[in-house]
Amino acid sequence: MANQRQPRKNRTKRIFAARLAGTTVFDPIGDAVGRVADIVILLSFRNAPRAVGLVVEVGNRRRVFLPFSRITSIEAGAVIMTGRLDIRRFKQRTAETLAIADLLDRLVDFKDGSGLGRIGDIALEQSPHRDWMVSEYFVERVRPSTLGYRRTGESLLVGFDQVSGTATSGLPQDASTLLATLENLKPADLADSLHDLTEQRMIEVAKQLPDERLADVLEELSDDDRLTIVSALEDSRAADVLDEMQPDDAADLVAELPQDRATQLLQLMEPEEAEDVRRLMAYEEHTAGGLMTTEPIILPPDASVASLLANVRREDIPTTLAAIVFVTRPPLETPTGKYLGVVHIQRALREPPQTLIGRILDTDIEGISPDTSIGTITRLMATYNLTAVPVIDDAGMLLGAVSVDDVLDNLMPDDWRDADEDVTDETVTRSAHG
């Protein structure tokens, strides 16, 4: 068949998109300014697709655009640029396609009618005019199966004009390659990366995340993004993910869903998790009851410091809740027995492991009622330098705890995740895009 590309003499310089991802970008004096996150491509139905620049991830996980006109060299392990980066956050335009986020793993048709393939990498070559053009795709043949599509084991390089489907999104798209590039990101950074994708691609990537990982990411996403994702999940999967979320975040999300869907998901959730969510949804949004989590670290007064330290080491405990332990009489599930006080992690670290935590209680941290306003909670945290405050009922039982991150989320503007910082450096325009 004609799909095989024969080696050409005097081939111009060529780079592969997947291999370029993660490459360090250096300024003219040799200082690292960021890493390559993606390549911006303009697709064409007739001519070779043109790469117009790189998406560069700078130190604060901000993604910015670097046009190829500002790149002086692309070598193994290094991209050398000239001038300054435009520090405005990169926003993908309608006509733009991201090589890694949008094209890798996309299913395409071979134009000779020999079947389907999945794009595994993209080769770009520099033209005599110094433009970077897509020359070839590295494609793995696939065939339909009962579980979707199965690789046949055959891989080949084909010209950009020998396959179709790169400029459309009608076929389902895997996200394995993209997820591999995002594997080590913290949930908040992964949430930022998902937000930067198109809606369809964001859903495709989210569906392939494990339940626990997706739950962590949903807690960091904006209301619109997480509603989009949960709305695209099957009911059973959505319920499993809600089970993994912090109860307060799950309650906020369920409250945003249509009533019928919310009721259905609550019925499918684990009974204990669903009960926590229902209880939290009963409180006003900007009160202690509406902000609190029902799962802080709770221990009895006869627990040892060793036991306390083992609990705060758990990976599922948010940092803000790991700094303080709430001590109550049994039962230890909220609503608990009588609230007694708290133990600060710094105090516990100064004690022998066998010390009973009842002996190092801080009884000055009084509980607040569920209807306490967010303004009062903020002043209390600021006055006493607290990362979390206990919420108790009229009988003195611990209902939960409000953490400082939940307070901050509610004090920030609704669109704070999308807001750009003030641009103070000299910037360049996106004129290189067209």
From TrEMBL:
Annotated GO CC locations:
membrane
Q: Does the entry feature the keyword Zinc, yes or no?
A: no
Superkingdom of origin: Bacteria
Keywords, in A-Z order: CBS domain
InterPro entries hit by this protein: CBS_dom (IPR000644), CBS_dom_sf (IPR046342), Mg_transptr_MgtE_intracell_dom (IPR006668), MgtE_N_sf (IPR038076), MgtE_transporter (IPR006669), PRC-brl_dom (IPR027275), PRC_barrel-like_sf (IPR011033), SH3_actinomycetes (IPR058838)
Which PROSITE patterns would you find in this protein's record? CBS (PS51371)
Which positions fall inside the CBS domain? 361-421
Gene Ontology molecular function, alphabetical: magnesium ion transmembrane transporter activity
Q: Which residues form the signal peptide?
A: none
Q: Does the keyword Cytoplasm apply?
A: no
The record's Pfam families line, in alphabetical order, gives:
CBS, MgtE_N, PRC, SH3_actinomycetes
Q: What is this protein called?
A: Magnesium transporter
